Amino acid sequence: MSKLLIYYSLSGNGDAVADALKAKGYEIRKVEPNKVPPKKFFFQILQCGFNAGRRYCEPLKNYDADVSAYDEIVIGSPVWNGRLSCPINTVLKDTDLKGKKVTFVLYSGSGEAKKAEEQIHAILKDAVIIHVKEPNKNPEMLGRLSAL
Asked: 32 near 38, Cβ under 8 Å?
C-alpha cells in the first residue's frame, strides 16, 4: 500500500511528525505558502489565527495535488485559532481525496482542536484524527502515530 504525508509546519512540529512517518515508509510532501508568515510569534498568532478563523486558503508554492498513486493519505496541520492552518485549507480545496483512506495529524499547544475536527468532518466524514501536543517539546506524543 502506498502512503503519503502532506503537511505544513511553521514551528517545526510538523517536521517531527514527518520524520516519524518517513521512518514508517511514508513518502513526504511538505507544502509551503507563497507568502512567508511573520517571524515574531505574536504576529503569527494574529495574522495566521485570523486567517484560519475565516478558513482562508493560502496560495502554495509548486503544490502537486496529484495523489492518485497513493492509497493512504495523512495530512498534517498545525492548529491555528482552533482550526486547520491556511496552507492545509488549500490542500483540502485542491486535492481529490475521494476513495482514499485519510488520517489527519493535528499538532497544537493545547493538544485539542474541536473546531478543526468539525472542519475536517464536514469535508471528510470518515477521516481519522490524531492529536499530538507539540511533538518538538513532547516527543513521546509521536507514539500516537503507531496506529498508522
From this structure: no
Query: 39 pLDDT band (50/70/90 cuts)?
Result: confident
Predicted local confidence at residue 43, as pLDDT: 56
Decide if 113 contacts 82 (C-beta within 8 A). yes
Q: Answer whether residue 93 shows pLDDT above 90.
A: yes
Q: What is the pTM of this model?
A: 0.88
101 neighbors 72 (Cβ within 8 angstroms): yes
Q: Where are the beta strands (DSSP E) in 9-148?
A: 27-30, 72-80, 83-84, 101-108, 128-133
Going by C-beta distance under 8 Å and a sequence separation of 6 or more, which residues neighbour residue 59?
Answer: 33, 34, 35, 90
Amino acid at 111: G
Residue owning grid cell 503544490: 63
Report the chain's C-alpha Rg in angstroms: 14
